[in-house]
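Ticket #4471: structure export looks truncated?
Reporter: QA, pipeline team
Priority: medium

Steps to reproduce: submit the single chain below to the structure queue and open the exported record.
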Amino acid sequence: MDSVGAKVAKARWLVRVGVSAACAGALVAAGAPSASAGAQGCNQRTCIEVEGSGLRVESISAATTWNGDFTGHFHIWGGGIDTNSATGFWGYHQKFTVPVHRDLPNGAVLCAEGWEHLNGRMESRGRACAEVHF
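Actual output as written to the record:
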């Protein structure tokens, strides 16, 4: 099978990567790469990466962007997942990863939000989301 045919055969499912707007419900589609190809997206200083195939999600990771270091925590949620990282310093190339290893509902929206802790309060450092599809 030629490379185009192979790509079409593999494209029986999609993970649309999106970046949420300031409003929690707003999701903007940014592409349609497969999760096994590294579905990922960033918003402000927070990035999400979803690994898997089809509806099967192996893991969800949150990280900072280049020069987006902060002290605080990440929150990953959606598709029945709701987990916070430990509070600490998060620098570039450091990831908070949640193992999933199961199928998620078609259309599940997975989000990662970075929260910087500043003088007793928290400030969002971006919310990046990905939508799981067949």
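Status: closed, not a bug. The export was complete when the record was re-opened. Leaving a note from the reviewer for reference: The CA atoms of residues 47 and 65 lie 7 Å apart.
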